[in-house]
Amino acid sequence: MALVGHIRELSDKHQRLQKLIDSEMNHSAWNDIQVAALKKEKLRLKDELERLRAIAH
To answer: Given a cut of 80, is residue 6 above it in pLDDT?
Structure first.
């Protein structure tokens, strides 16, 4: 059960990161470095989610 909660938490964080990336990129003077860091973190979360979902099934 704790694993499912952790997966849900990471999934929520993944979605929040996407919204943050979208918001940042909507600014006329968006910061390339910041967006790249956010995308890297989002990808790391995606990889972790896939790994945990494989364990859960």
So the answer is: yes
pTM of the full structure: 0.86
User: For the chain, which residues make up each domain, given as ranges?
Assistant: 2-56
* Closest listed residue to residue 47, CA positions, set 11, 1, 4, 2: 11
Q: How far apart are CA 24 and CA 37, in angstroms?
A: 12
Whether the CB-CB separation of 52 and 9 falls below 8 Å is answered with no
Determine the length of the chain.
57
Q: How many other C-beta atoms lie within 10 A of the C-beta of residue 55?
A: 9
- Assigned token pair, 15: 């979605």
Q: Where are the alpha helices (DSSP H) in the chain?
A: 2-25, 32-56
